[in-house]
Amino acid sequence: MNEERKQRIYKTIMLVVLTAVITFILTSIFTYKNLNGNSKYIYVSSNDGGIASIIASIRKIVDKKYLGEIDEQSLVDGAIKGYIDGLNDPYTEYMTKDEMQEFTTEVNGNFVGIGVYLTNDIERNVVLIISPIKDTPAYRAGIKPGDIITKIDGVSYKGEQLTEASNKIKGKEGTKVTLEIIRDEQTLTLEVERQSVKINHVESEMLENKIGYIKFNTFDDGCSDEFETQLEKLNSQNMKSLIIDIRDNGGGLVDEALDIADLIVEKGNTLLITLDKNSKEEVEKSKNNPKVNVPIVLLTNENSASASEILAGALKDNNKAKIVGKKTYGKGVIQELLTLTDGSGLKITTNEYYTPNKTKINKIGIQPDYEVDLPEEIEGLVEIEKSQDTQLQKAIELLK
User: Quick check: 184 and 200 in contact, CB under 8 A?
Assistant: First the structure.
C-alpha cells in the first residue's frame, strides 16, 4: 500500500456492518482519530440546555431512584447509539470498542463467523443475505443470495438492527448459531457452525479465446493490489480481453475502487464526483497511465452496490467498459469511519457521489448497456455453470 493511500482518511461504504464514557455527550471537548492516526478536536457546548443538560438531569434521577445496578459503559453506549439512531440514516452508526475492532478485522478479510455478506434491505427493513462466501459454513449449509434472516438463536431482528444481527451471528469458533430464514414463501431453520473465515477478495481465471476473468467479492483493504497481481498472471497468458465480475459485491472501501479504476482509465480523467452537505464538490481523477489496455466487459446485478457502483460508473462514463447484467443497487452515499479516543467508532454519512458525467446513483443505480436476466431456474444459486450463466455468455459474445 503506497504512502499516499496511507495518508488518506478511510472512507467506507460497506453494506455489511459489524457500533467514551458519558463525557462524549456531557463534556465540552472530545477527540477523534481517523484511521491513519491524525487527530481533530470538535467543540461541543454543554451549556445550551440541549442534550447534555437532558442527559445530566436524567442521570440524577437514575442515581436517586433506580433500584438495580448501573453499568456505566452500557449507559454510555446506549445513549450514544440512541442519539445516532435518531438521525434515521441506515448507513450512519456508532460502534463500541469491541464492534470497532471486529469491523476493522473484517475489512482486513479475517473473522470468525459463518461467512455471509449481509445488508439492511431498507425498503423491507429486513436483514438480507447478499451472498455466502464460497467454502464457508454458510455456503456448505445451503444459504443462498436473497435469503432473509428473521431470527438468530430465537431472537427476531429487523434490517435496522443489522449491526446487532451481525454480531449475534459471530462468536467463538466451533460454536453453533441457529438461523430462521425466509426463502421465497418458505421458512427454513438452519444450524450453522462458526469457523474462522478468510475472505478471498479477488479471483481470476482464463476463459476461452484468451478472455481474462476477474471476480471481485468485495472491495476490502488490499484488493487493488491483488487486482494488479491477477492482471499480471492473466497477461502472462496473453490475455486479449477482460471480464470484470462485480455481481453480488456489496461494496467496501472507496479508495480501493478508485485505485482499481486508476489502473484502467487514462491519466487525468475524472473517476468520481462527490458533494458534501454544503454542496462542496470534490473531483477524483486518475493519477496514472492505464495498465489495462484490452476491451473490458463489466458484469453487474441488483446486489452490486456502493464501491461496485463507483467502479462501474467510472468505467462506463470513461468508455472503458460495456456493462452487462442487471441495474445496480443504488447506494450513492459515502461514509467516513472515525475512530474515537477510547477505541469506539463512528461511521457517518458525509457525501453523495456521482459518476464522472455527474449522473446520480443514490436510490437509482446504474443501468447496464445490455440488460440480461439469468434463467429463473438458476437465479439465486451461489455457483452457476458457465454455460448456463447467460450474463457471462453475453459478455463472452461481446468480446469474441
Answer: no
Active site residues: 306, 317, 331
171, 239: one domain? no
Q: Among residues 143, 177, 198, which one ends one of the domains?
A: 198
Number of Cβ within 10 Å of residue 360's Cβ equals 13
Residue 154: half-sphere exposure toward Cβ, Cα within 13 Å: 0
Quick one: cell of 92? Answer: 450512519
Q: What is the largest CA-CA distance in the chain?
A: 77
Task: Specify the amino acid at residue 293.
Answer: N
Q: What is the DSSP string of 69-104?
A: ---HHHHHHHHHHHHHHTT--TT-EEE-HHHHHHHH
Number of domains in the chain: 2
**Per residue in 72-118, pLDDT tens?**
999 989 999 999 999 999 889 999 988 888 777 666 555 788 988 88
Structural domain harbouring 177: 112-198
Q: What's the rounded Cα separation, in Å, for the pair 204 and 219?
A: 15
Cα–Cα distance measured from residue 195 to residue 65, given in angstroms and rounded to the nearest whole number:
45
**Taking CA 259 as the corner, what is the angle to CA 257 and CA 265, rounded to the nearest 5 degrees?**
95
Query: Could you tell me if 125 and 237 lie in one domain?
Result: no
Reported as type and span, the H/E element at residue 139 is: helix 137-140
Could you report the per-residue pLDDT of 256-313, keeping only the tens digit for each? 999 999 999 999 999 999 999 999 999 999 999 999 999 999 999 999 999 999 999 9
| Statement to judge: residues 132 and 65 lie in one domain | no
CA-wise closest residue to 15 among 258, 250, 328, 255: 250
User: Is residue 102 located within the same domain as residue 235?
Assistant: yes
What percent of the chain is predicted at pLDDT more than 90? Answer: 63
Residue partners of 344: CB distance under 8 A and separation at least 6: 19, 20, 77, 80, 94, 95, 96, 97, 99, 100
Last residue of a domain, one of 158, 181, 198: 198
Question: 138 and 58, same structural domain?
Answer: no
Are 185 and 279 in a shared domain? Answer: no
Beta bridge partners of 275: 281, 352
Rounded distance, CA 290 to CA 66, Å? 65
**If we measure between CA atoms, which residue out of 396, 248, 250, 223 comes closest to residue 324?**
396
